[in-house]
Design a protein that fits this description.
Elements lengths: L1 H19 L4 H11 L6 H12 L4 H26 L3 E2 L2 E2 L1 H5 L1 H19 L3 H23 L5 H25 L5 H28 L2 H4 L5 H4 L5 H4 L4 H19 L7 H13 L6
Antiparallel strand pairs: 1-2
Pfam families: polyprenyl_synt (PF00348)
InterPro entries: Isoprenoid_synthase_dom_sf, Polyprenyl_synt, Polyprenyl_synt_CS
EC number: 2.5.1.-
Length: 280
């Protein structure tokens, strides 16, 4: 775990520095409430690990990792407003603590800081822009054209969750100036991990304890949100198997890359297995 903690610490230190530079101070405080309230830091960790796995150093990818975490956090602020979710990561959600207007402004500020980190690299800008288009279309689909089949749900999960995971991994490869084949392979790996992550989220929403999860449970049923369990007749156990299938596909994609750092590669392998058994 020390290996991962060192990399997460690099991300946290840079994230704290960026939040500390936001002006005015009140906005920095509001951004910090969301960005620094904890979280698994899965996406930026993927960015850094992919960079190392294909031949880079952790510092090469930290800014891209922080950027993708800021984009993710900004999307969570909006998700909580849509869902009227009062808690996130065990604390008050941004709209509950500050109100709708400040929460949205804080979300916009995080996007601005993120794109400042991507702006020097055209490939990075294109990758994140495409992911945000997918994310936005996925969120809109969830609201106005809900899926009615497993296939439609999987496409929604790819857009709503998988696309940002894909971007996180591709950014790690881009940070080392990797070739297009490598970027595509790690992108597919991470997209599959993201879909598995979303399916497991659906299962946890239906089965976990809210205190253990750090946010309200039962939200999918209450909000009539299209979870895999709601859209299909699958049991939680069967849904978990779908997540395992995605995990296996992710590992097949990961096997296509030329590995420069075995330890980083091993952690990416472990992540694909972990997301389907996590309890938070």
């Amino acid at each position: 775990m020390e290996y991962l903690e060192r990399r997460q610490a690099l991300v946290d230190e840079r994230l704290e520095a960026i939040v500390g530079g936001v002006e005015p101070d009140r906005l920095a405080h509001e951004v910090g409430h969301t960005a620094l309230s904890g979280g698994k830091r899965v996406r930026p960790t993927v960015t850094v690990l992919v960079c190392e796995a294909v031949g880079g150093e952790p510092d090469d990818a930290v800014d891209f990792g922080v950027g993708i975490e800021l984009v993710h956090n900004a999307s969570l602020v909006v998700d909580d407003i849509i869902d009227q979710s009062a808690r996130r990561r065990g604390v008050e959600s941004a709209w509950t603590k500050y109100g709708y207007g400040p929460a949205i402004i804080g979300s916009d500020a995080q996007l601005g800081e993120a794109f400042a980190l991507f702006s020097a690299d055209p490939r990075a800008m294109q990758t994140v822009t495409e992911a945000m288009v997918e994310l936005g279309e996925g969120e809109a689909t969830e609201l106005v054209a809900q899926p009615s089949s497993e296939a439609e749900y999987m496409e929604l999960a790819r857009r709503k969750t998988g696309a940002l995971f894909r971007a996180a991994a591709e950014l790690g490869a881009i940070a080392t100036d990797a070739d297009a084949v490598t970027v595509e392979a790690v992108g597919e790996y991470a997209e599959r991990v993201g879909i598995a992550f979303q399916i497991r989220d659906d299962v946890l929403d239906a089965t976990a304890d809210a205190d253990d999860l750090g946010k309200p449970t039962g939200q999918d049923d209450e909000m009539e949100r299209p979870s895999l369990l709601q859209v299909t007749d699958l049991t939680p156990e069967e849904a978990d198997q779908r997540a395992h299938d995605q995990s296996e596909a992710a590992l097949k994609a990961l096997s296509r890359i030329e590995v420069a750092d075995e330890q980083a590669h091993e952690y990416l392998h472990d992540l694909a297995e972990f997301v389907v058994i996590r309890e938070q």
